[in-house]
Amino acid sequence: MSPSLSTDDAVSHINATPRLHLRRKRIIVAMTGATGTILGIKLLIALRRLNVETHLVISKWAEQTLKYETDYHASNLRALADHVHSINDMAAPIASGSFRVDGMIVVPCSMKTLAAISTGLCDDLISRAADVMLKERRRLVLVARETPLSEIHLRNMLDVTRTGAVIFPPVPAFYIRPSSVDDLVDQSVGRMLDLFDLDTEDFERWNGWKKE
Ligand SMILES: Cc1cc2nc3c(=O)[nH]c(=O)nc-3n(C[C@H](O)[C@H](O)[C@H](O)COP(=O)(O)O)c2cc1C
Q1: How many domains does the structure of the chain reveal?
Q2: Where would one find the signal peptide in this protein (predicted)?
Q3: 209 lies in a domain?
Q4: Per-residue pLDDT tens digits for 166-212
Q5: What ranges in 50-166 are assigned the alpha helix state H?
Q6: Is residue 127 in contact with ligand 1, taking CB distance under 6 Å?
Q7: Residue 32 belongs to a domain with what CATH number?
């Protein structure tokens, strides 16, 4: 039987009130084994305050680094996200381009994960979800952390930038005259979220020279 649509049906389809799909902004947060896990923690807290739905993926080495450099346990970290996916779950919604998200941030991003993304090696959920962002032309921010940088690191950064990702090294802005590491982290997190058109409103923006 061929599908049929009466003229009346067609007219009522056309005249139907458009459905408003007002969903919360949705961002994937991936954490990998580079130093700077506090950046990921503070980013998740900021996104919670901004009422953004978060999908969190943590690598094995991110968990180790988290334990070493903060008082957080992975369970505290997971509690900050709306959804948590195992890095091995290649069937998670975020592994598909048909699942609608507003972007992804890898914070911090190790040179290993950067290399995986730059070559399209989708062997875990982080590199797969990042690959999806690039193919769907969605916002992908990599808070790439290493120093000094080798030619391989720089080449990988250039390749992903050319494909549409934003490399955001967590480099401190000393012009804010920080009085604590917290100030520097808040400024970095605020600037990362600027890239998603989100304003944390908890860091000082450059407004020209301050008058004495
Ligand atoms: C304490 C600690 C700090 C590390 N810091 C960095 C770093 O800043 N940048 C980096 O690229 N790798 C760093 N590594 C090495 C990565 O954890 C390692 O390459 C790992 O394979 C990354 O895997 P992942 O990207 O799946 O998390 C660090 C490792 C440890 C144990």
Answers
A1: 1
A2: none
A3: no
A4: 999 999 999 999 999 999 999 999 999 999 999 999 998 998 998 76
A5: 60-69, 74-79, 111-119, 125-135, 151-163
A6: no
A7: 3.40.50.1950
CA 202 / ligand 1 centre spacing (Å): 29
Q: State the pLDDT at residue 22.
A: 79
Atom of ligand 1 nearest to the CA of 87: 26
Task: Give the pLDDT of residue 71.
Answer: 96
Say if 10 falls within a structural domain.
Answer: no
What's the pLDDT band for 7 if we cut at 50, 70, 90?
Answer: confident
What percentage of the chain exceeds 90 in pLDDT?
87
Distance from the alpha carbon of residue 34 to the mean position of ligand 1, in angstroms: 4
Residue 146 CA, ligand 1 centroid: distance in Å: 9
User: Which residue minimizes the CA distance to atom 20 of ligand 1?
Assistant: 33
**β-bridge pairing 83-85 and 103-109:** unpaired
| The amino acid at 168 | F
Classify residue 201: in a domain, yes or no. Answer: no
Q: Look at residue 134 and tell me if it is in a domain.
A: yes
Residues in the chain: 212
Annotated binding site for dimethylallyl phosphate: 175, 191
Which residue in this structure is represented by tokens 């979220």?
193
